[in-house]
Write a structure and sequence with these properties.
Largest sheet: none
Distance between the termini: 84 Å
Structural class: mainly alpha
Number of helices: 5
Helix content: over 70%
Amino acid sequence: MPKFRKTEEELKTHFDKWLYVLKNLEELTKRPVKLQEKIFAKLFEQAEIANYSETEYHEYEQSLKVYRDLYNVIDTAFGDGKAEGLAEGEKRKALETARKLRERGFSAEEISELTGLSFDEVQELAG
């Protein structure tokens, strides 16, 4: 890109910034002030990874694999369980509230409406 001659201070548009990066990437040792946007952070991160030696890249891939494996183990073990646990807790709280309302003389219909429990669930509390 011999015709692109803007300096870092002259960069105004995204297009200018991209051309600047493409032209000067090999010489850039750190991210210029004008390129502090999120998209350029990702670009420089990938450029740094591409610059790893073969050993460094292998170690990076291994650490990434370990991270992904651990993440998936935790997600599998607790991912769906959290939603189920919350639903179970809400159900217990609704049943507890229904018992208290029943003790205070509320009808099964009122309790069902107030707690979100079905009419049959409220009826079971009475029995």
